[in-house]
Specification:
Two copies of one chain form a homodimer. Helix content of chain A is 43%, strand content 15%. With 338 residues, chain A is an alpha/beta fold. Chain A has a seven-stranded mixed beta sheet with strand order 4-3-2-1-5-6-7, sandwiched between helices. In chain A, 42% of the residues are buried.
Chain lengths: 338, 338
């Protein structure tokens, strides 16, 4: 009996030791295996690995306590594609078509008329005003729970027109590896996106492992109302916060209240977020994803209307930030690649 | 050598086993020990223990996955005292006195004049307008980092006038036990307070173990500006969000994006938060702290100008929410009690 118990404790002890080590020393647990297999072994990958080693090594002068290991990721163009148009806008266009039977007036009323006629050129030519009208019509006027459900329903089935794959299959495998690597290294990972917080939260936990409370985005106002005896939050047709450019550090401060030590973006809309991260003391990682692969994904930068990366490239060069060349640095972009 | 190693593994195994159990089975780890020793064994304590058992027991029909175990706590009057006036306002008054030498005009200008003369009756009689002027003067016009530091400096030394103890010593021991018990049971604990988010965040992690990113509060607007080459967030004299009453579910939705399954308050300002938690499905815990102990703390409710609890008492009675009678339910309030 006694030796039996001893054996059991020994065996448990060993298993537990392994599990426990994996918990306490995640980076060490990865030793020997590559945490970033979709990244080719260039400078970008080395910079990431070096940074994580420095801030997690207690002996390093760059050591950062786990509570302060905040990493912020833009979403569109950084964690998933954003061409030929922002996926959230694809959702809005599909919603216009679904809602059209209840809105016969839309048949005569731009921009809804042009959406229903499939004339995307005119829709986009309508500029911000038209886009805002489409967003307001499709993103407000319902409860937060109803909107959640509309997003969930759409994201479960809608397909990207080029790849005929779910939009959530159009996320970047190397970036998901990076999120997981940072999480395993004690980081709290956040999305800080110009996109709508309400559009992202229903699926980011399943897709990226990032829970709704770690998502920062642009916001329509919500207001508490009573539906009979039940309180509901109604989405109002008023954009109360734009989480882009100068708004990103504001959104980070509102939601996190700490300065990120690592920030990841792909466009000039992320520049202030990277500058905000860079302005803290100590070792920092600022990284731009540069869309350079027109075969596997898209190639665009300084002159693109979507995801323009112009000042960001200059700032990266001037400050020695990491610029990921998707074509060269990533051996895989999407999980559906052969 | 071999037996040495064996012994080492065995010993490590046992230690690790204990540590690991404490991590994986925190509730079980507490079995036999009382997680709420400052709570007398009345109905309130039993309701809390029963609720936590139900939502954490996988066999229970009320089981809730850890990700959804969200608990929200009001701060003033719920986690610490709020008499004879909100501690944040005590900070503001002290700041007025500190800032006065740079503002000679204040000597002739109410409400600053009355503050500097120590005429608190007139300050409070000045109503919301005067209070807002004092808050604006002391809470805005500086960078977020400067304000953080001002709060940290004050909270480290300022003493409560009645007890001559640090304000952070005036937190309620039973509520700290409750926070720790919920955390150990897989809950994520949040502060959702009418107080300023900027005033709370600098110390909530040290005092309650609640990190800045889990604090929701009222907010002054912030704006990104450049100080030379350095981006800073300047606190603007515009209150952009009031996290009180109808604002609390809005703040919860903004920051958390999930509905709490447990909500704790002490005043009518928390009523909508408790209603919002209650309106979700499944087992829920709504709890009011009722200030009934004029000897050890204060006794006030329906007619108090600070922390009025009137509708909340009626709603609690109607809905069977827990009402904590501080005098009867808590055998200890502050840690400095003999």
């Amino acid at each position: 009996m006694k030796s039996h118990l001893k054996l059991k404790i020994k065996t448990n002890g060993l298993i537990v030791l392994c599990l426990f080590s994996a918990f306490l020393f995640p980076a060490a647990g990865l030793a020997g295996s590559d945490p970033l297999p979709s990244w080719n072994g260039g400078a970008a990958k080395q910079r990431i690995l070096g940074f994580v080693k420095n801030v997690t090594d207690k002996q390093s002068k760059s050591y950062v306590v786990p509570e302060e290991r905040i990493a912020t990721f833009d979403n569109d163009g950084t964690l998933w594609s954003e061409q030929p148009l922002y996926f959230q806008f694809a959702f809005a266009l599909d919603r216009v078509k679904e809602m059209a039977p209840e809105h016969p007036e839309w048949n005569a009323q731009p921009p809804f008329k042009t959406v229903l006629e499939g004339d995307m050129k005119s829709v986009l030519a309508g500029g911000e005003k038209g886009i805002f009208e489409i967003l307001t019509a499709t993103h407000t006027g319902m409860t937060t729970a109803e909107f959640d459900q509309q997003v969930k329903t759409w994201i479960a089935v809608a397909k990207h027109p080029r790849f005929n794959k779910l939009y959530t299959d159009c996320i970047f495998v190397p970036m998901l590896e990076l999120i997981n690597y940072l999480k395993a290294s004690g980081f709290k990972t956040w999305i800080v996106s110009g996109g709508s917080i309400g559009f992202m939260r229903p699926w980011t936990e399943d897709v990226y492992g990032i829970p709704p409370e770690q998502v920062v985005g642009s916001r329509f106002e919500t207001k508490l109302e009573m539906k009979g005896q039940t309180p509901v939050l109604m989405r109002q047709p008023k954009l109360e916060f734009i989480d882009d450019k100068e708004g990103k550090p504001v959104g980070i401060h509102q939601h996190i209240g700490r300065r990120p030590i690592a920030a990841f973006g792909n466009s000039d809309g992320d520049l202030q977020m990277l500058q905000w991260a860079a302005a803290g003391g100590g070792d920092r990682l600022m990284l731009y994803v540069h869309h350079t692969d027109e075969i596997r994904e898209w190639a665009y930068d300084r002159n693109s209307s979507i995801g323009r990366l112009d000042k960001g490239l200059d700032e990266s060069a001037a400050n020695g930030w990491v610029v990921v060349d998707m074509k060269k640095d990533w051996n895989r972009i999407y999980k559906f690649e052969p």
